[in-house]
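Slack export, channel: ligand-projects

TW: morning all. Re-posting the request from yesterday since it got buried. We need the structure predicted with the small molecule present, not the apo form. The ligand is zinc ion; the SMILES is in the block with the sequence. No rush, but it would help planning for next week.
GE: picking it up
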Amino acid sequence: MVSSATAPASEGTQHFLQRIQLFSGLSTEECTEVVKRMKRREFPPNQVIVREGAPGSSMFFITAGQVEVRKKDSSTGIDFLLSEMGPGQNFGEMSLLTGKPRTATVLTIQPTSCAVLEQKDFQELLIQYPKIGVALTTILAERLAKASQQVGIEFINLSKLQVDSRVVTLVPAAMMNQHKIIPVAFINNRLTLAMVNPNNLMALDDVRRIIKGVMVEPVAISEEDFKKFMGSTYNELMKKEQAAAEAANSAASPASPTLSGVGLSGVTVSTAVTAAAAAPAAAAPTGMLDILQSDLIRDLQLEDVAAAPGSETKQDLMTASEDAPIIRLANSILGLAIKRGASDIHIEPMETEVVVRYRQDGLLQVIQTLPKKAQMGLISRLKIIAKLDISEKRLPQDGRISVNMEGKPIDFRVSTIPGKWGEKVCMRILDKSNTTLGLELLISHQETLKMVREFINQPYGIIYVTGPTGSGKTTTLYSALSEINDPTINISTAEDPIEYDLAGITQVQMNKDIGLDFARALRAFLRQDPDVILVGETRDKETAHISVEAALTGHLVFTTLHTNSASGAFTRLHEMGVEPFLISSSTIGVLAQRLTRRLCKHCKEPYEADDATIEYMGIKRTKPGEKVTLYKKKGCDACNGSGFKGRIGIYEVLKMNQELRNLVSRGATTEEISAAALRAGMLDLKAYAAILLREGHTSVEEVLQVVSVAE
Ligand SMILES: [Zn+2]
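GE: finished. pasting the full token output, ligand included:
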């Protein structure tokens, strides 16, 4: 009786505190006593319980509800969702133990109840229950072992080191004295920083702030060494540096900036220090990834940790060092894509390597090639933050990553497919802050802009936007919607996916799994007293029909069609089974469009076009023999060396008139409709592109990629 009562009892009546390492040595009765010292606290949804960097000395045990844990990545500034936690889980133990600021932000998703243990109560508990002290020692020892394994800080003797004076000037003397740090070496974009206290995170942050884009590697030095250096060696080095700077200035070569003159912008510094004379401007971000790559090769043991994701619990993720190379690599890939304004990220495992590509201004480009051994960890990491099943590698999956960058919410739509050499991850960046919207940004030709504005201010009718995938149809439609958006009208959109958030508009995400398609959403909108409706895409007869009916019953409808030319829209609708007379009476106009890269205005280069180009591109001279200046790409810092910055639309806008209505009603061919529209003054894509070229917005090469000019 006695033995049966002691042995299995712990299983049935296990106290929730016993599952927490800190209290695992206590009996159930003792745990009950501990709980008495805790305070109950209730939090409403969306409340921050602890904030990253804020002081705090208490630990929280969730008894009901749900919270999310977010952490800012210091190198990219992105705020990541690390994990979600629920009843039985705890957070804040490091602040309880050390009194140091919070290492992550925790905020509630649902109403949440916590039991809170304050530091003074904890200290009393330690005296009352020595077993907690033993557990504490074990936890701290484990943490320490883990930390030194990750960081591996080495101790150096400054007197044996030859310090380059140019490297020392990277950090201002005041900061060196404040934090007791000395920059001692700079190789391959990696700054070795000698520190009296290598755990001084504030010092590391300060250094990263003034020297952006470099990796900082701390090494330890003694206080004595530091004093000795600053007392004598430093002054000698400064004198040497000053002399060098003066010599460089008197040589008057503006092309080779001295180190002190480059504003410590990190990128320029690195090229100066490594004496790579004319490094291309594009080297900056790629260089950053290069460092990460060398990290990966060096820190193989860490990669193993990330490659065995089964062992990575939510708690591990939260406390994982932000210096872990895999996490940093994943963060940098995301952060760099946002900073460069890429629209998609492709991570493609090949036989012997992993290729990272960004789609930027419509074109894919290789950003970096990573060693094959980075594959497992990187893909697992991305799947974890996209909340996908990491163990499932044979089936395609879809997920989402939500981050904040400089206060701006950015979502990544993530998809994986099983490729021959491993899972390929593709991420579409959904920047919901719609900073790029605006018809005047897309449509540079004033008459065309005026005509489009006329279209969207009609009380009813339908406006079609056509073009291939990636031609910017959605951007044009959103820009139009945000122009007419007004509290006095009801705007509803059916989208797949929702790419921008528009305030004051009802946006509905399509979901084919539950049968919510465009046609069904459209029918529902019509019962909700709409003024303006946007249908993401007209691709079936039913959607085409309802849109046309909606337009004819007093609503303004915007939608897209998959045709190449404006005139082709009518044939396409006819093929879908819409009656020609309904098409002709409901249509206001059709916009065919393409997107092309906009030349960087800081570096574009003028040249005099030859006759063949002028004729081929259909550029019109104002008088015979006139010289025609066109522009071509070059590349500078402002455009990451690509020669392009942003994109611009090429439009073909067909405005309905009586002749066109008659032609459409009797089912005329695309060619007949096109000819009539051109007679009425329509600019086709080629003619519009010629205007863009003359105005210097883009280059001949770019136009040729998106517009057929051969006919
Ligand atoms: Zn440029």
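GE: first-pass observations. Residues 600, 602-603, 635-636, 638-639, 643 surround zinc ion (CB under 6 Å). The longest strand covers residues 587-599.
TW: perfect, thank you
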